[in-house]
Design goal:
Elements: H1 2-6, E1 13-15, E2 28-29, H2 36-40, H3 60-67, E3 70-73, E4 78-82, E5 89-92, E6 100-102, E7 122-125, E8 130-132, E9 137-142, E10 152-154, E11 157-159, E12 170-174, E13 180-183, E14 188-196, H4 211-226, H5 230-235
Antiparallel strand pairs: 1-8, 2-3, 3-14, 4-5, 4-13, 6-7, 7-12, 9-11, 9-14, 10-12
Length: 239
């Protein structure tokens, strides 16, 4: 059934139980989660048309990193309270299912090699969306790129979502001290990026420039001096 659902289409499938349908926020394309500060930013510093005055809004790699993949949102409101160094975290929710869970500190740190944030308890958001990809595809789960949440940080993971037929929860650390407030339903938790495994580069070479390298990079640098937006206008590939 899994393979016949996808057929030859390259698509990711998000599904939930009937009782949760139209109750919990749905996943959506990352391109729909562009922060207000980015939208409001001018293309150039002080809106003055000068060379080398571009803001990050003209940076294609920055924007494409934000728009690739899909956003998985928080299922329900959660009230958090933390102490002075975020080593103590309490939470409460009225959701009709478990919405949070704990991990043991020994799962992320050790006496020999302590985790940089070993004082912060590792937690997890419970996710009620089943995530499936076609055969040969995995999904990379990371915090939304270039849109850091000042209150918590999810921990990245790569899952073979073509064979793992279960819900995937999202471990995180609540890093904001002296916090009392609500993280609202719909808050973006992770950016889910499908990756075709057989297209990954699993070999590398490290070496000095050869003659061809010098010629290519010199040409590119000259093109960039002729046209400031050479990469954006002439090189970027459709995704």
């Amino acid at each position: 059934m899994f393979k016949s659902f996808f057929g030859s289409n390259n698509q990711i499938r998000f599904s939930c139980m009937e009782e949760d349908w139209d109750i919990i926020p749905k996943p959506y394309p990352s391109r729909k989660f562009i922060p207000d500060w980015f939208k409001a930013m001018p293309m150039r510093v002080d809106n003055v048309e000068k060379l080398n005055s571009s803001t990050v809004k003209r940076c294609v790699p920055f924007l494409e990193a934000m728009t690739v993949g899909y956003i998985i949102p928080l299922a329900a409101d959660i009230e958090f309270t933390t102490n002075e160094d975020a080593s103590g975290v309490e939470w409460n929710s009225k959701f009709y299912k478990d919405i949070m869970g704990k991990h043991g500190k020994d799962q992320i740190t050790s006496e020999k090699s302590p985790h940089p944030r070993e004082h912060i308890p590792p937690l997890k958001f419970i996710n009620y969306w089943r995530i499936q990809t076609p055969p040969g595809w995995s999904t990379l789960f990371i915090p939304p790129i270039n849109r850091e949440d000042s209150r918590f940080t999810c921990i990245g993971g790569l899952v073979d979502t073509d064979v793992y037929d279960n819900f995937i929860n999202f471990p995180f650390m609540f890093t904001k001290p002296n916090f009392t407030g609500i993280i609202e339903a719909g808050t973006p938790l992770v950016q889910a990026i499908p990756i075709k495994r057989d297209s990954l580069l699993n070999k590398n070479v490290v070496e000095k420039f050869n003659e061809s390298d010098y010629k290519i990079i010199e040409k590119t640098q000259k093109q960039l001096k002729v046209h400031e937006s050479h990469y954006r206008d002439n090189l970027v590939q459709k995704k």
